[in-house]
Amino acid sequence: MHMSTATIDNRTMPPCTVIPILAYPNVDEAISWLCGAFGFALRWRMGSHRTQLAYKEGCVVVTDGFANQPTVTGNENNAVTHSVMMRVNDIDTHFANALLYNPTVLHGPTDFFYGERQYSVKDIGGHIWTFSQSIKDVSPTEWGAEVGEAIKR
After folding, report:
1. Is the Cα torsion angle 143, 145, 151, 153 positive or negative in sign?
2. Is 56 part of a structural domain of the chain?
3. pLDDT tens, 81-120?
4. Is residue 71 part of a domain?
5. 35, exposed or middle or buried, with CB in 10 Å at 0-12, 13-18, 19+?
6. How far apart, in whole angstroms, are the C-alpha atoms of residue 61 and residue 55?
7. Count of CA atoms in the C-beta half-sphere (13 A) of 98
8. Domain holding 130: CATH number?
9. Tens digit of pLDDT for each residue in 67-89?
10. Is-contact 119 133, C-beta < 8 A?
11. Range of the domain at 49
């Protein structure tokens, strides 16, 4: 269990606190469209299934979908099209507090190779939230991502 509440900068994660995650049928097409239409710049890309795009201090994650995640009812494809990621300073305390409100736990706090400790829950409206704490600095190139112009190398 990680008890540190010190803020760690992790090059894999954008510096913003709240990060929308949007699913598209074609990630490469979405990158091109979002960069062209809205002025985003590539932070990093992992193959053709996941990327981070930056705009000023903000960021969005673009993904080809949410494999192994519950679906949202009312969607004609019954597929998750969006979720939210939020960076916190003390993931274990945050998780313990969230449990007091009985969310649907998708996975408890887990350490990941890209330098983050995260948990995911569904809120009372069925929205998926992932909370993340940086536990070490990891360059996206260390786990195979292609780095773009919007990331500090």
Report:
1. positive
2. yes
3. 889 999 999 999 999 999 999 999 999 999 999 999 999 9
4. no
5. middle
6. 12
7. 23
8. 3.30.720.110
9. 444 444 444 455 678 899 999 99
10. no
11. 18-65
For residue 9, the one-letter residue type is: D
Beta strands in 56-127 (DSSP E): 58-63, 82-87, 104-111, 116-122
Residues 111 and 139 placed together within one structural domain of the fold: yes
Q: 115 with 90, same domain?
A: yes
Residue type at 130 in one-letter notation: T
Contact partners, residue 127, CB within 8 Å, separation at least 6: 83, 84
Please state the domain count of the chain.
Answer: 2
Give 18's Cβ-side CA count (13 Å radius). 3
Q: Which pLDDT band, with edges at 50, 70 and 90, does 16 fall under?
A: confident
**Does an H or E element contain 22, and which?**
strand 18-23
Q: Quick check: is 153 in a domain?
A: no
Structural tokens at position 108: 């408890």
List the CATH number of the domain containing 37.
3.30.720.120
